[in-house]
Structure formats: C-alpha cells, structure tokens
Known about the structure:
The complex is a heterodimer.
Chain A: E1 3-8, H1 12-28, E2 34-38, H2 47-50, E3 53-55, H3 65-70, E4 77-81, E5 85-87, E6 104-108, E7 118-119, E8 122-123, E9 126-134, H4 137-155, H5 167-170, H6 174-184, E10 191-193, E11 203-204, E12 219-221
Helix pairs in contact in A: 4-6
Chain B: H1 3-6, E1 8-16, E2 23-30, E3 35-41, H2 53-62, H3 64-105, H4 108-112, H5 116-124, H6 128-144
Antiparallel strand pairs in B: 1-2, 2-3
Amino acid sequence: MNGYIYVASRYERYLTSAEYSAASLKDHHPNANITLFTEERFYHDGLLDTFDNVIVDDVPNDSRAKLWSLSRTPYDRTLYIDADSVIQHADIANVFDELGDHDLMLTKIRPYAGAFVYFPGGALEDHCGVILYNNKKHTINFMHQWWKLWEVQKSGKWQWDTTLYPDEELRPWDQWSYWWLMNKTDHAVDRGYFPDPDARWNYVHRYKPEECHKDDVVIYHHTLKVN
Amino acid sequence: MTKEKKMARKARNAFYTNNARTQIECEFINDDNSISRAVINKLGSEGEGAENPDWAWVHEECGVDTIEANTRKKIQELQNVTHEKEATTDRMIGEELFNYKLKVFEMEEIRASRNTKMKSKIRRADDIMKVNLYAAALMAMELSAPEEVVEPVKPPVVDVPPPKKKTAPRKKKGLAHGKVRIVDTINDDKREK
C-alpha cells in the first residue's frame, strides 16, 4: 500500500497546516492513504476526519521530527509532504509511479529563491520539502541515519571542517546531514529527481512562474508564519 | 547651447520618454570623460515652435533607428519590472492569505466543526473577504446548533421478520481444512456424492 505522510511538531500551527494540506490532498484524491505523525499533546479525535492514521507514540518535540518519522512510514511507497504545502492537482494520485527504480526522489533547489546553497565543499541542491521514497531496507536505514546524524548535528557533538563546510550556515539545516549522508557515507541511496518540470511537484511560492512551463502545479509550497 | 552642453562631445543610450516622441533622455560623454544624463525637449525654451538644436544633434549622434530600438528595449524593461512587482505583490498576498486562513482554522469553533463543506469553502476562498464571510457563516452555524443531548437510544419500531435460524456450517468428512485428497477419478472415485 502506498500513502502520504505529514509531520507536525513543536507548534500547533504546523498541525493546523498539516490538516489543511491533507484536506486539500483529499479534495484531489479522496482515496489517499494519509498518516500524520504528531505529538501526543496535539491529538484530538477530529484529526481522524482527515487522516487515516495518526501516530503519536514517542514522536519527538523537535523541529526536525520529520526525520524521526520518515523511517517509520507504514507504506510501501511514501510521499512525505511538508505541512505548509497545498495540493492543487489530481496528478498527486499518480505520484508513486514517478519513483521508478529509484530509492528516493526529490526536486532541485532554486538558488534565486533565497535558499542557502553553495559552500566551499559542495552545494545543497536537493529540496527536502517533498520526498518520495520506497521502503527497502537500505532506504529506511538511510532515513534512520538521517535522524541520528541530525541529533548529533543539533547537539554540537558533530564537528566538521568548517573551512569547507561553514558551521553557522549549515548547522541549522537538516539538508546538511542529508547532504553528508548522500555524499560522504556508504548510506547513500539511489536518488532521482522528479522529471522536468520538477517544480510542479514542489513549487515554492518564490519560484518564477516559468519554472512549470505550462504544466499545472501539483504541490504548492507556502511559508508558514508561526507567530 | 548652454556652457555645460557645449562640453558634451558624444551622446549615447538615447530613448524617447513619451509616446508623442517629443522628449529624449540620453547620456552625454563630456570632454573630461565624465558622463551626465540629460533630458532634451524637441522644442527649445527660447521661442515657441523653435526646435531645440540639441534635439537634432542627439538624433545625428545616435540615429533614429537606434533611438527607436532603445525605446522599445526601455519599454520592455519597464514592463518586466512592473510584472515582477505585480508577481511579488500577488505572492505576498497569497502568503498572507494562506497564513490568515490557518489562523481562522485555529478558532475553537471552526477547529471543532465537522462541517467539511464550509471548511472547504474557507480553504478555497481566494481573498480575505470570502474567508471572513465563510468563517462567520460557519461560526454562526456552530453557535446556533442545539447542544447535543445524550438520550437513551430507543429501538426503532418497524416490522421485522423473524430472524432466520442460523445453521452451523456442515463439516465435510475426511477433509481437513486446506488439504486436498488425491483420488483416482476414473477407477476409484471415493468422493462424497
């Protein structure tokens, strides 16, 4: 069984947004299987109107609870969607076909859209706001390692060559531990990118309209204001 | 010519600034290689109807075709800037609207409501006024709805035919569930009839 997962932790606004996004997903794909990972304190019965499955046990109060959740997907093929995204097109139902033989699939970051990308040792090119992946053992292990590496990254226990990898710019970002695992370890998995125009699968609101050519946007990515 | 204008030895990047083509903006490269910008009217200020001599000079320096091409380029640049500003404004409005809707969905009565139709209308609203209207309507529905009173459930009064007797499934002799007996169907068919 394939399905979609959302994660909402730390702030209630993320939960509201995840509900909003999942409802928009059901508008376009009423039979979608959707699982929510959230903290127990946020749970209420109304969540089951939108989500088929709500997981609260041990979900951490962490800004990157997403990484904890990715390896715990109940699905064969999973589409992780950031909570501040809205589904706009019925093609969302066919997204799992895009994965092909890859283990994991994403879209590329657009540097002009304001993201930190380039550093002396490399570049953060993958946008981790929408992730399509399978449940093969090594893929799930990759997700697990991502969470474990994030924990030491966040705590400061992980130190690296800051001349190549500037600490201040990279330490706050989960994309940094993702980049490290993909480029510097044996945990790397077979990564693919959504076919051109990839932006339709994760269209960040700062993107230029021509990014999608004439294709419809499937996932529109907003920016959440927590306060 | 004024003293300053006499210093200019070359004009460049000239373009018309109005549809009537009666004003030009251009750069002057001066004798000391400094660059100054100037706006030149077709008609000079000294007498009505008299053409400004600088007008002819700039046309001679730059050429009408080049001035026209520069003008078209300038118009395109201005349009691009305008479109970009409009897109930025639309984007900002879109983000404000999205975050505003989330705040609406966090209102207790709306969060607790099971009225998915009205919630969908709020989600799909394309401006704040519609969000407010649908949110107010939903709020009114929720507040005016009678509070749920838990009453003992009475069995419905309908003619119900007497239940059929349930019969236990008949066990098949000699065949364990999931097993198949191999028989010689031609010479020794021992299957039950």
